[in-house]
Amino acid sequence: MDQLQMAAISQANIKCCGSHCGVFNRGEDGPSQMGLEDIALFRTIPGSTIFYPSDAVSTERAVELSANTKGICYIRTSRPETAIIYENTEKFEVGKAKVVKKSDEDRVLIIAAGIISTRSSESVGITSIRENLSEGSRSLYNQAD
């Protein structure tokens, strides 16, 4: 991380990608192979841009956006196979969240990122049935400084 901190001072154009991130990876490669503090570490780099895509479509867009964003970019990926929640034509912008699900009856808003975006909808779907709630879901696709 020291090298990236120093690179930020000189406004270097560096792209990084981390995989096996977060606790939902269940440590298929063992507990030492789960990146847990990666977002926190990259947030300390001045001017860095962090992408946390939730499916294959948003991952492809993260790579495109990262390649076209000046400075230090980090793409956080997960290992498990995930459901596709975006159409291939979906547009993404740096610094913007995406509304995944929305209705006029929404009484709960879930804000999630990455693999949690698909899993949170599953969880609230169960809760909605039990408590007769409607939920909106928003994916924090990208965090820009």
UniProtKB/TrEMBL annotation:
Organism for this UniProt entry: Caerostris extrusa (Bark spider)
Q: Which Gene3D superfamilies match?
A: 3.40.50.970
GO MF terms on file?
thiamine pyrophosphate binding; transketolase activity
- Reported cofactor(s): thiamine diphosphate
Top-rank taxon of the source lineage equals: Eukaryota
The family database entries (PROSITE patterns) matched by this protein are listed as: TRANSKETOLASE_2
Record keyword Cell inner membrane present: no
Signal peptide range equals: none
Which gene name does the record give?
TKT
Q: Which Pfam families match?
A: Transket_pyr
Q: What is this protein called?
A: Transketolase
